[in-house]
Amino acid sequence: MKITRVEPIHLRLPVVNERCDGSQETLVVKVHTDAGIVGIGEVDSSSLVAKAVIEAPLSHKICRGLAECVLGQEPFEIDRLIHRMYEGSIFFGRQGVAIHAMSGVEIALWDIVGKATKQPVYKLLGGGFRKKFRAYASILFGDTPAETERIAREQAGKGFRAVKFGWGPMGESEASDIAHVRAARTGLGKDIELMVDAGLCWDTATAIRRSRQFEEFNLTWLEEPLHPDNVQGYARLSAASPIRIAAGEQICDVAEFRTLMDVGGIDVAQVDVTRVGGLARSKRIGWDSYERHRLCVNHSYKTGINIAASLHFVAALPNTHYFEYCVEQGALRQDLTRQRFPVVDGDIAVPEEPGLGADLNEEIVAKYRVG
Ligand SMILES: [Mg+2]
Q1: How far, in Å, is the centroid of ligand 1 from the Cα of 247?
Q2: Interval 204-261: pLDDT, tens
């Protein structure tokens, strides 16, 4: 089997605003083969920039678009193709958008291999440690504590047993920060797990102070209190905090994750399969975290493609049981794939169909396609 075409597809809602909701637009990647099998993947990045990284023509040997790196190649040879993409983009890549874009191609390769062998991707990854995960509803804080409490009651009423609030007003003031987290806990009641995503809003000393102030609200973790470059700050915070510290969604480099664990001391490594270069690199990070006795969880704020790929990823790890489940109501998040990946009794199940187990709704693709 040979790869015949790499097709990046930019999808965007008619109105996109500044709130921290990555499900308002996305980049889907289709990889076509001469056997008629088409794999799909997704990229979480600045979609048009990532699209250019895939489509760019050859400039010279180590400066080429990702599509050129894989065209005519055998899709089963995934590690070799990752290497071709990494080396073919090495001086403009290695980090950031080139790695993000690689994720879309790489995930589509796993989908192809799964469809060709009639196996779900998690088995190809050597997994099956768990088939169900506790889905935590991932949502933004309200503008006011009263709205945060209302959202918490709403999510609890949907049967979620864990809810994470993020970004928005966090960082406005000490009183406001505490009021929002108190409101979230009040709305959820004492039995539903609560996570807080600070959204990079504090300096190191404030983050240490908040971690102590939030202790009474029994958080499962405190996420991204600090800038991803503040590794020494993470080290101080992790040593002082009575709450688990989670981070990683801004990072796409395998070695940088190790630094965040070994120097920064984080307790929960958050890996986005559509940012770190795909499933094979995600699995490396996941096992690095296992060997360091940390939790590993998915980061996911995109569509059903990301959800399906993330489920296969976490099923291939022994050190996770939570699953980030974006509950935004936009059409790309809710309708892009025919499968809805429902949460039943608070849990989400790993797909058992061949490949990713995610099929595009082509009407939604046509409706929101840009260019
Ligand atoms: Mg986050």
Answers
A1: 8
A2: 999 999 999 999 999 999 999 999 999 999 999 999 999 999 999 999 999 999 999 9
Q: Are 206 and 177 in contact (CB under 8 A)?
A: no
Domains, the chain, ordered by start: 3-119 (3.30.390.10), 124-360 (3.20.20.120)
Amino acid at 42: E
pTM above 0.85, yes or no: yes
pLDDT at 329 over 90: no
- The pLDDT tens digits for 111-160 are 999 999 999 999 999 999 999 999 999 999 999 999 999 999 999 999 99
CA of 201 to the centre of ligand 1 (A): 12
Buried b (16+ CB within 10 A) or exposed e, 335-363: bbbebebebeebbbbbbebbbbbbbbeee
The greatest distance separating any two alpha carbons of the chain, rounded to the nearest whole angstrom, comes to 61
Strand duo 295-298 + 268-271: pairing: parallel
CA of 77 to the centre of ligand 1 (A): 33
Q: Are strands 132-140 and 322-326 parallel, antiparallel or unpaired?
A: parallel
Centroid of ligand 1 to alpha carbon of 52 (angstroms): 26
Q: Which stretch of DSSP H or E encloses residue 82?
A: helix 78-88
Question: Cβ(279)–Cβ(110) under 8 Å?
Answer: yes
> Inter-axis angle of helices 279-291 and 304-315, to 10 degrees?
40
Q: What are phi and psi of 261, to 5 degrees?
A: -80, -50
